[in-house]
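testing teh design pipeline on a random one, pls ignore if ur not involved
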């Protein structure tokens, strides 16, 4: 789209006259050339589909959770997203017959749920409330002001230099342009720009596009609107691939692996995260929150400090003796670090606690040991999760090395004969990402026979993955015997694929047969 083009449809066009109200003179963001475009690609998830390059997602997903093999989705470009927005607005406008800009704001208020909007609109008892909640003046009750003095700079100007909203607030075009540019460029606001008078009414698309003249600001405004449209729509997700501007649209929201046809990134449609089997979205969200908040700080404090028995101040022991004096100047209580009892009752036992087996002392020690055990358990799973995450990041550079190796090998053999290196890199990435998510999955599992089997499968896959990584890092750059290296790498990556499938099939079986029980309190 040319940056100077008018990329908003004038509602005075034939289509707008047919589908909008008679007095509708609004605009909506879209390049007319794409309204009739059919360049939309429909794809399905393909088990064991290997992408052409490393991506933030993972292909080759098994039917997990279990998954819907018939989950259909569409990959949309920026222009196609705008086209889809126009179609949504026209569909609603055929029923409610309002200006397209008003319909756009109403749909945004209802998170682009067309059925819910039309249901509420057709309820005459709640129509005023509908417009009020959407921050729009009810078009059936509009009584615009005739005042022509700018409410910002207080200057009186000709009518053709003034502009206002249905709320009646009038501003000069210079003040409008400065205000809108600030909101769009500096604050990043698009669909929900409020009236400058702070009256809670939103500025519609028609007003924005009629006032903004700078092409860069207009492009930014279109981007903000399309971004808001995708993020509000429960059946759409942005592709998380680096510098990718595509979105994915489906008929319903479900746990399914979707793959962008442009950048080949695969991700979970339900939560928008990188494809994360075997763990479910709910538990992954809890794990990520646990990793990023301060929950483990409190565990460390519980495991390595104690409270003063008198004033409850937190105390860390920094010496070898068991006699502690509270550092709180208003307390100065002396107590035993081991049993937390008063020090004076210990008599002459200066360095040894003679109340070791008392109930209170045992309870205090048990509480501390539980906190320490919880911390150690968390760190066990977190370190391994983080290690695979880092390995995945570092091994992404391996593709460049392999690519160079494949190019040099072409002097001896054909390109097809060295494709095994590329396939091995893809399998390595798949296994790494699967292993990374097995650790938060295992963290929340309760111990039973099936969790033990899962850990055995996890260990087998981890061992095979490390061997494959070693082969690719060493042999692909050092070995001169191509036949020997090819056989070794093929055997190993096929074994890794098999072990990964065994692990994921067992997890899927567990979901279907309710093998898995979870620790809700960790």
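output:
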């Amino acid at each position: 789209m040319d940056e100077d083009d008018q990329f908003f449809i004038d509602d005075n066009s034939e289509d707008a006259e047919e589908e909008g109200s008679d007095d509708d003179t609004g605009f909506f963001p879209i390049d007319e050339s794409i309204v009739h475009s059919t360049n939309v690609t429909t794809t399905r998830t393909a088990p064991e589909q290997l992408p052409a390059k490393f991506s933030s997602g993972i292909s080759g997903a098994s039917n997990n959770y279990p998954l819907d093999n018939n989950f259909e989705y569409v990959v949309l470009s920026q222009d196609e997203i705008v086209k889809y927005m126009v179609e949504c607005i026209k569909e609603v406008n055929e029923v409610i017959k309002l200006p397209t800009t008003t319909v756009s704001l109403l749909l945004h208020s209802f998170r682009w749920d067309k059925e819910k909007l039309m249901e509420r609109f057709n309820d005459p008892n709640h129509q005023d409330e509908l417009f009020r909640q959407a921050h729009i003046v009810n078009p059936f009750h509009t009584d615009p002001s005739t005042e022509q003095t700018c409410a910002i700079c207080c200057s009186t100007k000709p009518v053709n230099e003034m502009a206002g909203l249905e709320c009646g607030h009038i501003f000069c075009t210079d003040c409008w342009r400065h205000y809108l540019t600030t909101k769009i460029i500096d604050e990043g606001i698009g669909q929900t720009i409020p009236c400058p008078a702070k009256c809670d009414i939103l500025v519609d698309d028609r007003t924005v596009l009629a006032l903004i003249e700078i092409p860069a600001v207009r492009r930014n405004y279109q981007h903000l609107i399309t971004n808001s449209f995708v993020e509000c729509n429960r059946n759409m997700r942005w592709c998380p691939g680096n510098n990718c501007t595509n979105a994915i649209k489906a008929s319903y929201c479900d746990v399914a692996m979707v793959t962008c046809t442009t950048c080949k990134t695969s991700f979970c449609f339900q939560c928008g995260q990188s494809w994360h089997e075997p763990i479910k979205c709910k538990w992954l969200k809890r794990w990520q929150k646990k990793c990023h908040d301060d929950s483990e700080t409190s565990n460390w404090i519980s495991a390595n400090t104690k409270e003063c028995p008198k004033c409850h101040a937190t105390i860390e022991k920094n010496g070898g003796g068991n006699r502690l004096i509270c550092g709180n100047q208003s307390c100065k209580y002396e107590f035993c670090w081991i049993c937390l009892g008063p020090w004076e009752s210990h008599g002459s036992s200066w360095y040894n606690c003679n109340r070791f087996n008392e109930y209170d002392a045992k309870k205090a020690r048990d509480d501390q040991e539980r906190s320490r055990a919880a911390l150690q358990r968390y760190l066990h799973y977190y370190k391994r999760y983080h290690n695979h995450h880092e390995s995945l990041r570092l091994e992404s550079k391996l593709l460049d090395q392999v690519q160079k190796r494949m190019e040099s090998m072409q002097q001896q053999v054909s390109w097809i004969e060295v494709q095994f290196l590329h396939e091995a890199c893809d399998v390595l990435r798949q296994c790494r990402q699967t292993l990374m998510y097995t650790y938060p999955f295992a963290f929340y599992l309760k111990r039973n026979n099936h969790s033990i089997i899962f850990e055995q499968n996890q260990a087998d896959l981890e061992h095979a993955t490390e061997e494959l990584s070693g082969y690719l890092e060493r042999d692909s750059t050092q070995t001169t015997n191509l036949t020997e290296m090819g056989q070794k790498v093929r055997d190993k990556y096929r074994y890794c694929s098999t072990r990964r499938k065994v692990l994921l099939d067992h997890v899927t079986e567990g979901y279907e047969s309710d093998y898995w029980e979870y620790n809700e309190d960790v």
